[in-house]
Amino acid sequence: MFFRTILWLGVALLLQACSSTPGKRISVAVETYPPDLPVVTRAEWGWQPLERTLPEHEISRVTIHHGGVEVGEEKDIVAYLKNLQSWSRSEKGWIDIPYHYIIDLQGKIYEARPLAYPGDTNTSYDPRGHALINVIGNYEVQKIQPAQVDALARLSAWLIARYELGLDALASHRDYAPGETVCPGADLYRLLQDGSLKRLVSVYLGK
Ligand SMILES: [Zn+2]
Question: Where are the strands (E) in the chain, listed by range?
């Protein structure tokens, strides 16, 4: 039994050595989240490790986006994330999904690009220093759901506390790219304009 174990260990090590290309798998920091912020981690949804990186940045803002494409309840979010990751890399030449977190229609939060690296954009603002949250859907035409607003507020509060920022760090894409985009869409932007999102973030910050 002992020798069989050793043999299997040897085979496993050999397979591991054959399958990894030195220098190709970049390890990234694993985040820990509080119990009231259930996040689907990169490992849980099958994210592919980075093949290259960007210079690291210091987070000073939390910036909200929407997907810009109307989606329904039937959306397979894991398939969507995997497609978005491969499209970002092969079509756009980006290191990864352009956002750090994705929120689905049910308010489930998924990790995407590691926070250490700045995101990407098709507009002209500089995403360095921004933690980017993307809510899938098009809120020019769809209504934002209460579970999504709750997830957005909890995640924003966690980021604000983690990086020791103020509530004024919370804004949306159109605030940084005026005239270039309607992102995050009228129904989501309304919550930033009327102060209700920041009020909810304050509650979760315990202020
Ligand atoms: Zn955007």
Answer: 39-40, 61-66, 101-103, 109-111, 130-135, 170-172
Beta-strand pair 101-103/61-66: unpaired
Collect all residues with Cβ–Cβ distance below 8 Å to 87 and sequence separation of at least 6: none
Instruction: Indicate which CATH number applies to the domain containing 15.
Output: 3.40.80.10
Q: State which residues form the domain around 83.
A: 2-205
Q: What is the pTM of this model?
A: 0.87
- The count of structural domains within the chain is 1
Q: Cα of 120 to ligand 1 centre, how many Å? A: 10
For ligand 1, the distance from its centroid to the CA atom of residue 32, given in whole angstroms, is 26
Q: How far is the CA of 36 from the centre of ligand 1 (A)?
A: 26
Say how many Å lie between the CA of residue 136 and the centre of ligand 1. 11
Euclidean distance between the first and final Cα of the chain, in Å?
60
Tell how far the Cα of 147 is from the centroid of ligand 1, in angstroms.
20
Q: Each residue's pLDDT tens digit in the chain (207 positions)?
A: 555 655 555 545 444 444 444 456 788 999 999 999 989 999 999 999 999 999 999 999 999 999 999 988 888 999 999 999 999 999 999 999 999 999 999 999 999 999 999 999 999 999 999 999 999 999 999 999 999 999 999 999 999 999 999 999 999 999 999 999 999 999 999 999 999 999 999 999 996
Ligand 1 centroid – CA 64 distance (Å): 7
